[in-house]
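TA notes, week 10

Several of you asked for a full example with nothing omitted. So below is the full record: C-alpha cells for the whole chain, then the designed sequence directly under it. When grading your own attempts, check the secondary structure regions first.
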C-alpha cells in the first residue's frame, strides 16, 4: 500500500463507511516550522550512545550483508574446489566413490550456498524490521508526550 501524499501536506483521513465518524487527520511528517526533525546523527556519536536512543543497525545492514556474501562466496570456492580435487583424488582408489563425490559437490555446494544466502538475507531483514519497529515505537511515544 502506498501513500500518495506529499510530506508538505498532511495526509487526508481514509474514507469511512456511512454511519461511522471520520478518522482524524494524520500528523505531518515535519515540524510546524517546516524543518524535518534531525533523524541521523554522526556514526561515532551513535556508536557510543550509552543510552541506546540512536540505532546504527539500519545503517550497517548493507555492510553486514556484503561481508556475509563475501564469506559465503569464499566458503563456496573453498568447498567447491576442495570437493572437486578430493573427488578427482578419490577416483584413483575408488572410481565410484570419486565420481559420486564430484557429482555431489557439483550439486550440493551451489544449493547449500543459495540456502545460506537466503538465510543471511532473512536474518538481516528480520533484525532491520525489529529495529524499525523500535524506532517507530520511540517516535510514537515522543509524539504522544508532545501532545
Amino acid at each position: 500500500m502506498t501513500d500518495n501524499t506529499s510530506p508538505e501536506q498532511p495526509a487526508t483521513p481514509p474514507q469511512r463507511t456511512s454511519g461511522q465518524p471520520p478518522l482524524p487527520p494524520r500528523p505531518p511528517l515535519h515540524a510546524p516550522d517546516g524543518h524535518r526533525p534531525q533523524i541521523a546523527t554522526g556514526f561515532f556519536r551513535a556508536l557510543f550512545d550509552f543510552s541506546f536512543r540512536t540505532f546504527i543497525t539500519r545503517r550497517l545492514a548493507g555492510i553486514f550483508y556484503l561481508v556475509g556474501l563475501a564469506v559465503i562466496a569464499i566458503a563456496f570456492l573453498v568447498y567447491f574446489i576442495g570437493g572437486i580435487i578430493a573427488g578427482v583424488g578419490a577416483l584413483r582408489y575408488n572410481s565410484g566413490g570419486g565420481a559420486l563425490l564430484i557429482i555431489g559437490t557439483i550439486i550440493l555446494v551451489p544449493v547449500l550456498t543459495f540456502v545460506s544466502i537466503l538465510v543471511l538475507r532473512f536474518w538481516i531483514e528480520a533484525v532491520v524490521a525489529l529495529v524499525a519497529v523500535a524506532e517507530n515505537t520511540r517516535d510514537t511515544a515522543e509524539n504522544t508526550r508532545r501532545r
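Residues 61-139 form one domain. Use that as a sanity check on your answer.
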